[in-house]
Amino acid sequence: MRWWHLVPFVINSAFGAMGGEVRIYLNSEITAAPIIRIGEIAIIETNEKIDISNIVIPPETFADGYIESGEVRELISSRYDGLFVRIVGHAVRVKSIGERKSDSEMSTINDDEIKNGERVEVVLQKKGITVKTFGTALNDGKKGDSIFVKTDQSKRIFGKIVGRGTIEVLP
Hints:
The chain is mostly beta strands.
């Protein structure tokens, strides 16, 4: 028997009895609730016959207002030994119910205007998939104008103002 015939056995053994891989795409923000499950904070892809979406996130995990990717990884790893977890995103902001926007977010006079330095929602829609994140406007503008935005991930993008505090990424 040649050595490469043993590779699948070695890989399966390294992953433990469970084996497999899970991909988790964290949402940027959710509204707090008494019980938050992993399925409510992320999109989950797996080819395994396991359901991690119902794992409850303990309230002390998001007491600081965020659920970090490392905390999600620890929750899953503590229940499924040997499962390879790939997480896209750094953290999920847990917004308290009825949380008021900051004064800088409320500063616009016209509902369709955005001011330089204002916090905005950035939306990318492509092939039926919508991705949302947040950023800071780098220019003033009104509905229909195109402006630059610096995302929370420090990427500079160009987008069109589609409504109050919302920018749609241009191709």
